[in-house]
Design a protein that fits this description.
The protein has 674 residues and is of the alpha/beta class. The protein folds into 3 domains: 7-34 and 542-673, Immunoglobulin-like; 41-56 and 209-538, Glycosidases (TIM Barrel), CATH 3.20.20.80; 73-206, Galactose-binding domain-like (Jelly Rolls). It contains 10 helices and 37 strands. The longest helix is centred in the middle third of the chain and has 18 residues, at 374-391. It is globular and about 90 Å long. Residues 8-17 and 559-570 have low confidence and may be disordered. The structure holds alpha-L-arabinofuranose. The site of alpha-L-arabinofuranose (AHR) has 12 residues, from loops.
Length: 674
């Protein structure tokens, strides 16, 4: 039970908008320590989040392993004659069995192939691009392979000779420097002599990635992540972990080492939930577990990998590994911990070192299963829990509680909690909620009565889904109101993360999302700024707050008649506080951090009393997120239409009035005088 629940007092019958609101913060009664891991990020390769997104690879279908093997590739024939075929004889390696063969009868001015990237290759003037290709040619091939970047008009904007390999597969590498910028360039590879040339793993990377890492991530997208100040990164999902069926599940061991040895998998988001399909959506695993751990280091956040527990998606194939055959799945988990943390003389620690990272990654938590539920899960999960704890007692296990917490998912969630209450061990329980904005308002008190002696909560996937699943301010502010409850209860709630993280414009399977991007641009949704503001202003210690209003607050507007995910809407009617408020102290700066959310359609004025303080020092700071309409959204054209605005505050005394705009999140940082 929270010692400082949000106290809401009502008296009288004035409309809330006219009634005085009194907010009291007890500045001299420090409460619980706010979880340092409270605000993190959830990454999944959905909406082209990895390949075509965060992973900076510019070539699509680089290993010719799509079911349509030449997808994104075309033939280039400059007055010659030849064939482009897909072959499998004597491949580069058995995990990457297909390659392309150029059979050149007459090269003309060049015969070969070109890749269009992910809807065009965007290049910047003056920047370097690293091209690498695995190649072989018939003995006696007496030509070269030339590489070029050409813009939409066919103009060459970078070119060089890649040379030619002998009759055995060999890596060939050159750097292409773009003479001009282009949005929709293509990569052209042409043979210049008669014979046959085999090509595989054609990869083009910008030199400039986040922290300039090879095989790295897009600098602009990763900077957006850094600006969220995440305490942790959960990866690689999501449903991706489960797979549509067991062969489709995510297997971390497939994602490390030479990119040519990482077998490509199809992406389960080819079959999106709402019937949209993306048949060319694949996982190269170029962004694999080493890269995820590395990204965590680069973002100074804790890694939280989630592993498959022997169960594929229970909404789809429902495939389950018999208990007797669970050993390899468990071994994958144990090996991952050793890969992350083991000394370099352990088998998996040695592999990490061989990949260039001898220092351990200091993994502290691991998820077992994603949205699993039912007895099937609770037969398998304890096997993992016991075995992992036996070997690594200090490691925290994240346990699934099913796909949701109410409506159609309630029974699954309840079974999980019945288990935890009756002896099934759990450290951190992963709860998910994709619900209408009103649900978030009505559930800001969700964890006020949470048992402080049981497992802690990970609000592992959440987002407010407004009508049409728009990324609007209404959804963002509802999330902010809910998050005041996460902070207030952060002795019980250890962690939280919005989901999904990324959306590539024109290529989404799921909305709303936190960050929108295309091949060159990126912007944060209003929800992005809510997450960033909460993380940046996470207090270290909670302070008690009461919100008194002279009138009961009218219920929030009714939710839409049906949510697009088919879930039952929450009935309207639960009274809400006049404002959603949480407070705490930043121990580093000594500031009082007061977070106030007004999700209503009218501005609200509150009298704020800093009990136990004689006043606040000069130059307090207010950061506010607001906009004229709750329907407002950000876009590529107006990326910061809804973005935090800062103001300097001079607070006259220990009690002062403040008006909070309609649909707003306000964070006050004050140096208080006791
Ligand atoms: O975030 C999108 C999906 O929602 C996740 O993959 C899954 O865990 C949840 O159902």
């Amino acid at each position: 039970m929270n010692l400082f629940p949000l106290v809401v007092c009502f008296a009288g019958s004035l409309a809330a908008a006219e009634a005085p609101i009194h907010v009291t913060v007890d500045t001299a009664v420090p409460g619980h320590v706010v979880s340092p891991l409270l605000h993190g990020i959830f990454f999944e390769d959905i909406n082209y989040g990895a390949d075509g997104g965060l992973y900076a690879e510019l070539v699509q279908n680089r290993s010719f392993e799509h079911a349509e093997h030449l997808f994104a590739w075309g033939t280039v024939n400059r007055g010659g004659d030849g064939d482009v075929t897909i072959e499998t004889a004597a491949p580069l390696n058995p995990r990457n069995p297909h390659y392309v063969r150029l059979t050149v009868r007459d090269p003309g001015k060049g015969f070969g192939i070109a890749n269009d990237g992910f809807g065009g290759i965007a290049v910047k003037q003056g920047e370097n691009y690293f091209l690498s290709v695995r190649m072989r040619a018939n003995a006696g091939y007496a030509g070269d392979v030339n590489a070029a970047l050409e813009d939409e008009t066919g103009r060459v904007i970078a070119s060089d000779c890649l040379g030619w390999a002998g009759p055995d597969w060999a890596p060939m590498e050159i750097t292409l420097k773009a003479a001009v910028s282009a949005l929709h360039a293509r990569l052209v590879l042409v043979a210049t002599a008669k014979g046959h040339v085999d090509l595989d793993v054609v990869s083009l990377f910008p030199e400039h990635t986040f922290k300039n890492r090879r095989n790295g991530v897009r600098a602009d997208l990763a900077q957006m992540l850094a600006d969220l100040h995440p305490a942790f990164l959960r990866f690689p999902g999501g449903c991706i972990v489960e797979g549509m069926d067991l062969p489709n599940r995510y297997q971390w061991k497939d994602t490390i080492g030479d990119i040519a040895e990482r077998p490509q998998n199809w992406n389960r988001w080819q079959d999106a939930i709402r019937g949209q399909t993306a048949p060319q959506y694949y996982q190269t695993y170029g962004l694999g577990f080493l890269e995820y751990f590395q990204l965590c280091e680069d973002l100074s956040c804790e890694p939280l990998p989630i592993l498959n527990c022997g169960m594929a998606c229970q909404f789809q194939s429902k495939q389950t590994v018999p208990l007797k055959q669970l050993a390899p799945f468990l071994q994958d988990a144990l090996d991952l911990i050793e890969f992350a943390n083991g000394a370099v003389d352990t088998p998996w620690g040695a592999k990490r070192a061989a990949l260039g990272h001898p220092a351990p990654f200091n993994l502290k938590m691991l998820g077992v299963g994603n949205e699993q539920w039912g007895e099937t899960y609770f037969e398998r999960y304890p096997v993992f829990y016991q075995a992992i704890k036996a070997k690594y007692p200090g490691l925290n296990i994240v346990t699934g509680a099913g796909p949701g917490v109410d409506a159609g998912d309630y029974d699954r969630w309840k079974l999980a909690w019945d288990k935890f209450k009756s002896g099934t061990p759990a450290d951190i329980v992963d709860e998910h909620y994709y619900r209408p904005p009103q649900w978030f308002l009505e559930n800001a008190t969700r964890y006020d009565a949470q048992d402080r002696y049981g497992p802690r909560i990970f609000a592992g996937e959440f987002a407010a889904h407004d009508r049409g699943r728009r990324n609007n301010l209404r959804a963002a502010i509802a999330e902010a109101a809910f998050m005041t409850g996460l902070v207030r209860n952060s002795d019980a709630v250890a962690m939280s993360s919005y989901a999904p993280l990324f959306a590539k414009a024109g290529a989404t399977q799921w909305t709303p999302d936190l960050i929108w991007f295309d091949n060159t641009r990126v912007y944060g949704s209003p929800s992005y700024y809510v997450q960033a503001l909460f993380a940046k202003n996470r207090p270290d210690v909670a302070l008690p707050v009461t919100v008194e209003s002279a009138a009961p607050v009218e219920p929030a507007p009714a939710p839409p008649p049906a949510t697009t995910d088919g879930k039952v809407p929450v009935p309207a009617g639960k009274p809400l506080p006049a404002l959603f408020v949480v407070a705490g102290r930043d121990e580093r700066t000594g500031e009082l951090v007061l977070t106030v959310v007004n999700p209503f359609a009218d501005p609200r004025t509150a009298e704020i009393e800093l009990r136990g303080a004689s006043g606040a020092g000069p130059n307090g700071r207010l950061t506010a997120l607001a906009s004229a309409s709750a329907d407002d959204e950000n876009s590529f054209e107006a990326p910061r239409k809804i973005a935090p605005r800062d103001e300097v505050l001079q607070i006259p005394g220990a009690t002062f009035p403040r008006t909070f705009p309609a649909n707003s999140l306000s964070i006050l940082r004050l140096r208080i005088r006791q």
